[in-house]
Amino acid sequence: MLTFVVFFIIIATSHSLDNGLARTPPMGWLAWQRFRCNTDCISDPDHCISEKLFMTMADRLVSDGYAAAGYKLISLDDCWLAKTRDKKGRLQPDHDRFPSGIKALADYIHAKGLRFGIYEDYGNYTCAGYPGILGHLETDAKTFAEWDVDYVKLDGCYAYPSQMDAGYPEFGYLLNKTGRQMIYSCSWPYYQLATSLQPDYKTIAKVCNLWRNFDDIDDSWESVQKIIDYYGDNQDELIPNAGPGHWNDPDMLIIGNFGLSYEQSRSQMAIWAILAAPLLMSVDLRTIRPEYRDILLNKYVIQVNQDPLGNQGRRVYKESGIEIWMKPVTPVINGKYSYAVAFLNRRTDGTPSEVSVGLKELGLNHEKGYKVLELFDKKDLGVKDPVDRVKVDVNPTGVVLLKFIALKHSVKRFGN
Ligand SMILES: *[C@@H]1O[C@H](CO)[C@@H](O)[C@H](O)[C@H]1NC(C)=O
Ligand SMILES: *[C@@H]1O[C@H](CO)[C@@H](O)[C@H](O)[C@H]1NC(C)=O
């Protein structure tokens, strides 16, 4: 039994980037976490960073139902570049691994109805040591527009974090000036926090569509938990910055790789949905097991993530390894929100933990009641009123994700 009171403050952020993009968190596929900087196409042709890899993943995104579920972006990460610029000072891909060039790759991806993302770095070099954009900002913005890029992830290695308050807006301005709409993903606050500078989130939300706040994700439950803790511990600072067009980015989904169990994969998916996080899968779509694919394709969970209000949810309870996370979502009935509620079990006892909580304690006080759905196993838990309780069994390192849908009319019922 839990006792606590929940306060929700819903703040409408008004001044933010108005390029019309990323009204809901971006969804797609990003190479880094699964394929890293594997440039060895001689001995590992199926896993190296090459145009073939991105074309294959684009094919899979469409043929295996991901694109239909909303995952529309295919994005390069580090290590696509040649070590030097071309004779005119423009960026160029490694010609052995991208023999057709980046424009041709973008065309291929667009022809499938998908969007194309690119990676660069604000500094002198990318993190892996390829040419960065510093000193070439205008040329590179133009090059991206000429290549029909839709999404730019701009990293921050080999740069001074103190100069990012000027540099990231300058590049954002230059992207805008090209006239091509490109989602702008920034690593700006992450590098500032890493060097103990205080990010100016108000400005960041005006310049970037999404931004990284915390360490790169690794392929482990430990890494996922660190990220979950960071977003819970710093939620009062982070939540007000998020909303349609501008999102905190806790990094890629690692579901379907090597490091997460089935339960832990549901946990990552649920918390990323609650956080209104970008859903950027980084997994080999050729070999992912069906049960992990089902987690990524769960349309009810995706709907929580993509809710049009764009509220980033918050951790409302944390004790003895049990956490409750809540996100206000549509429909809103007479000013009362519906909610997605994640019950997360961080405990590792060899048995599920029972969590029982009254709706009122969760702040669910809509008098007409809520229709309650369990989203992963797709169970209808009936109608609950503020005086009722919910009871769930949460598996070790797993999650139960419920949606409380505010009702328009009270439902007459017996028993309960
Ligand atoms: C980037 O290169 C310039 C020119 O060589 C140099 O002045 C600057 O210190 C470098 N920046 C970093 C972060 O190393
Ligand atoms: C450029 O910025 C203006 C003003 O913020 C905005 O209205 C416009 O849509 C932007 N254009 C592009 C291509 O992003």
TrEMBL record:
GO terms for molecular function: alpha-galactosidase activity. SUPFAM superfamilies: (Trans)glycosidases, Glycosyl hydrolase domain. Residues 310-398 form the Alpha galactosidase A C-terminal domain. This is Alpha-galactosidase. It is found in: Lysosome. It comes from Artemia franciscana (Brine shrimp). Keywords: Disulfide bond, Glycoprotein, Glycosidase, Hydrolase, Lipid metabolism, Lysosome, Signal. It comes from the Eukaryota. CDD domains: GH27. Residues 1-16 form the signal peptide. It holds the Pfam family Melibiase_2. Its main location: other. Belongs to the glycosyl hydrolase 27 family. Homodimer. It is an enzyme of class 3 (hydrolase). InterPro entries: Aldolase_TIM (IPR013785), GH (IPR017853), Glyco_hydro_27 (IPR002241), Glyco_hydro_27/36_CS (IPR000111), Glyco_hydro_b (IPR013780), Melibiase/NAGA_C (IPR035373).
